Amino acid sequence: MIKRLGVITRDCAGVNAALRAVVRTAVSHGLEIYGIIRGYDGLIDGNLRHLDRRSVSGIINVGGTILKSARSERFLTEEGQLQALKTIEENKLDGLIVIGGNGSLSGAHLLASKYGIKVIGVPATIDNDVNMVEHCLGADTAVNVALDALDKIRDTATSLERIFVVEVMGRDYGYIAMKVALAGGCEDVILPEQDFDLNEICQEIQAGNAQGKVSWIVIVAEGKAKAQDVATAITLLTGLETRIVVLGHIQRGGRPTAFDRILGSKLGSAAVEALLSGETDKCVALKDEKIELIPLEIAIQPKKLIFEHEYRLLKLLS
């Protein structure tokens, strides 16, 4: 029987909404719940905080996570894992809810499969790269934060008649880059998922310039190329003035969108209900407004994102 739960979080918009839902759903079932401070490091160190309904008041609109977050190299070692297991046993935690991306969910799968801990995951990552999950927490907010910045950049690009290369986050996945480029009416996007030809991009810029097109925006996913390198090459090949903007970590923060607040609320509550119904080693996901449970072993596999159709549409409309 589950009487006491622990919850671990990573940082991105919507996580606090999910945490609020986890806590209030757990309390409604008469459960005790403890927040684990700074992720798996906190689990190793026994850094726990008792949570109740008031603990999560006023956080649904707050970005990041009130429980803090940290990457834990120690949890990758057996020594660290055993210390985490000791914390779970000493605090009599009957189950864990882990809110995070592939790294966090991999840790959750390890605890469940190797040590028999009851665990349910909640997918939360701005790259939207959890396998078999259509919508991860934080991705919608990250796209909208980047898009807001891009709209301001376009004002400057148009006024000054310049080429801008804008670098967005996306080490292995081009989700943010593709969505921002299409929603922002950009002329081109460079993605980890597909090859690009700088000569072709430059030829298009020159052709557009010859017809009177005075501004141009290229979005670059950080994992495929660096804005500075792309901008330098464009200037060299076209002779046109080019500027760069690296949006960086502003994409991880900001007030969560309505979509992420609602998604977090649904997934957080569903995670508690899943544990109480006897499920473990799975993550919750929303599909067609219904909750699905995906085995963590599958969820942590590499996700294949395909953008050919959206890219063709971008080029057609640019």
Low-pLDDT runs of 5+ residues are none
The arrangement of helices and strands along the chain is EHEHEHEHEHEHEHEHEHEEHH
**Termini separation (Å)?**
58 Å
Just name the CATH architecture of the largest domain.
Answer: 3-Layer(aba) Sandwich
Strand order of the largest sheet: 3-2-1-4-5-10-11
Total strands: the figure is: 11
CA-based shape: elongated
Q: Report the major sheet.
A: 7 strands, mixed
Query: How many distinct helices?
Result: 11
Strand content: 15-25%
What is the CATH topology classification name of the largest domain?
Rossmann fold
The helix content, as a percent range, equals 40-55%
Mean pLDDT, nearest integer? 95
Structural class: alpha/beta
Radius of gyration: 22 Å
In total, the number of domains comes to 2
Briefly, what CATH class of the largest domain? Alpha Beta
Give a written overview of the molecule.
The chain is of the alpha/beta class and 318 residues long. The chain folds into two domains: 4-138 and 256-299, Rossmann fold, CATH 3.40.50.450; 140-252, Phosphofructokinase domain (Rossmann fold, 3-Layer(aba) Sandwich). The chain is 43% helix and 18% strand. The chain has helices at residues 15-28, 39-45, 78-90, 102-115, 139-160, 175-183, 198-210, 227-238, 258-276, 296-299, 308-317, and strands at residues 4-9, 32-36, 48-51, 95-100, 119-123, 163-168, 188-190, 216-221, 242-246, 282-287, 290-295. The strands form two sheets. Strands 3-2-1-4-5-10-11 form a seven-stranded mixed sheet, sandwiched between helices. Strands 7-8-6-9 form a four-stranded parallel sheet, with helices on both faces. Helix 5 (139-160) crosses helix 6 (175-183). The radius of gyration is 22 Å and the shape is elongated. The model has no long low-confidence stretch (mean pLDDT 95).
